[in-house]
Amino acid sequence: MNISRLRLLPLLGVWLIASTAPLGCSDKSGQKADPKSQARNDSTVKPPKSPAKTEKPSDSNTDPSADAKRKEQQAQAQKEKERLRLEEEKKKTEEAIRDATVLQAPPLQKGKYHETGDFGKTMKEFAENEFRFREAKGKVFRSAFDQRTMEYSPVLKRFHARNAVVSPGRYDFDTGIYNLDLVFWEHLYEEKKRPKDVIDAARTDDICKLQAQVKVDAKTAERWRTAIDKKEFSITVWYRLAKIERADWQQNPHWNPVPMLAHDIAFSVEVLKVE
């Protein structure tokens, strides 16, 4: 064996081993990665921070004086809002009273007691037509009533009243309310001749009235009652129609063969002002 050849074999084995050992990691592009740069990049990447939790103050930490102050401010604001609403409503009512529509039955005329003209037609329409009544409810009316506009004939058994207070009404001391019937017209007819064996003669009451509740003190109510008893009472009322209490009519037997209806009309009203 050639001695020079044997000496080369160990050297060749060493070279092969060295060539197969990793000389360093490389990236996909074939370049070697810098260990120091990799360590630096790892140190800069930090995990995301979780949002800080905000804790609501417990009831034990709430200032009682601040809570009481807040409630007081809310109550004051509500009172002020209500005051402004009432003030605005009062202003509108006063304007409506100034612009009130006069609603008055025609005066009595001898021989024409039963005639109420266009006024009677209007009141009948209010009573039987819900659309006309709804329209009328939005208005303020002014009407005057004087007891001296009444006439009674004991011989003929007839009674006539226009724009008057016929009955004295009644005062409630607990509520301070005087209940009055304000009559636009009332015609009371009775038979002139009655057989002796007939107790209840034919009778027809033709009436149209307002049922009013007026808030007054006891002294004023007593003065009104005294004037009513003396048939000297007079009053002017500003009001709104509130409800149809009665709306009935029938043939008046005392006007035969002339056809004529005897009305029974009554409205409850909301009184805004009296004089």
Q: How would you characterize the overall build of this protein?
A:
It is a single chain. The protein has a domain at 96-274. Helices cover 35% and strands 29% of the residues. The chain has 6 helices and 9 strands. Strands 1, 2, 3, 4, 5, 6, 7, 8 and 9 form a 9-stranded mixed sheet that branches. Strand 5 and strand 6 form a beta hairpin. Helix 4 (117-128) crosses helix 5.
Number of strands: 9
Please tally the helical runs, counting DSSP H or I stretches of 4 or more residues. Answer: 6
Q: Can you tell me the overall shape?
A: elongated
| Percentage of residues in DSSP E strands | 25-35%
**Element-by-element helix/strand order:** HHHEHHEEEEEEHEE
Distance between the termini: 154 Å
Largest sheet: 9 strands, mixed
Helix content: 25-40%
Global structural class? alpha+beta
Uncertain stretches: 1-31
| Average predicted local confidence, pLDDT | 79
The radius of gyration computed from the alpha-carbon positions, rounded to a whole number of angstroms, is: 51 Å
Index terms:
275 residues; nine-stranded mixed sheet; 6 helices; disordered N terminus
In short:
By secondary structure, the chain is an alpha+beta fold.
Task: Present the secondary structure layout.
Layout lengths: L2 H18 L14 H10 L19 H35 L2 E2 L14 H12 L1 H8 L3 E6 L3 E4 L4 E7 L5 E3 L4 E14 L12 E13 L2 H12 L4 E18 L9 E14 L1
Parallel strand pairs: 1-2, 7-9
Antiparallel strand pairs: 2-8, 3-4, 4-6, 5-6, 6-7, 8-9
Helix pairs in contact: 4-5
